[in-house]
C-alpha cells in the first residue's frame, strides 16, 4: 500500500464504497524529477486520449517539491519558473481538451530557495 492508496481507502470507508472497485478507477504515478513530472503529463494525455470521457479529475500533489530540488537557489529561479510555467500550461491544455478538472497542491515557503 502506498500512502495515497491508504488515504483513498479511508475516503472509500467514509462513503461506504468498495475499496477494490474504487481503486480500479484511480491511476497513480509518482515523479522523481521535475522533468519526469513533465513527462508523466504525456502519459496522462495518452490515457485521456485512449479512454475519452472516463477521467474526470487530475490531481498533482506538491507540484513545486521537485522543482525546488532540481532548481536550487535564486540563480536558477528564472529557469525554475519557466519550467513550472510550461507544466502549468500543459495542465491547462489537458483540462480544456479532455474536460478534466485539475487539482494542484503546493507547500508554501517564504524563501524561494
Task: Report on the architecture of this protein.
It is a single chain. With 113 residues, the protein is mainly α. It is 55% helix and 7% strand. The chain has five helices and two strands, in the order H-H-H-E-H-H-E. Helix 3 (34-50) packs parallel to helix 5. 5% of the residues are buried.
Can you tag this structure with a few keywords?
55% helix, globular, 2 strands
Total helices: the number is 5
> What is the succession of H and E elements?
HHHEHHE
Query: If you average the pLDDT, what whole number results?
Result: 88
**What Rg is obtained from the alpha carbons, in whole angstroms?**
16 Å
Distance between the termini: 33 Å
Order of strands across the main sheet: 1-2
What's the layout of helices and strands?
Elements: H1 3-14, H2 19-23, H3 34-50, E1 57-60, H4 65-70, H5 77-98, E2 101-104
Parallel strand pairs: 1-2
Summarize the structure.
It is built from five helices and two strands. The protein is mainly α and 113 residues long.
Amino acid at each position: 500500500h502506498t500512502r495515497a492508496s491508504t488515504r483513498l481507502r479511508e475516503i472509500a470507508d467514509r462513503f461506504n464504497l468498495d475499496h477494490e472497485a474504487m481503486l480500479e478507477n484511480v491511476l497513480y504515478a509518482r515523479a522523481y524529477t521535475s522533468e519526469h513530472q513533465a513527462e508523466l503529463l504525456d502519459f496522462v494525455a495518452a490515457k485521456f486520449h485512449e479512454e475519452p470521457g472516463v477521467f474526470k479529475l487530475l490531481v498533482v500533489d506538491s507540484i513545486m517539491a521537485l522543482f525546488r530540488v532540481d532548481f536550487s537557489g535564486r540563480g536558477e529561479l528564472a529557469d525554475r519558473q519557466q519550467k513550472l510555467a510550461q507544466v502549468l500550461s500543459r495542465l491547462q491544455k489537458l483540462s480544456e481538451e479532455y474536460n478534466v478538472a485539475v487539482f494542484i497542491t503546493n507547500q508554501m515557503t517564504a524563501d524561494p530557495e
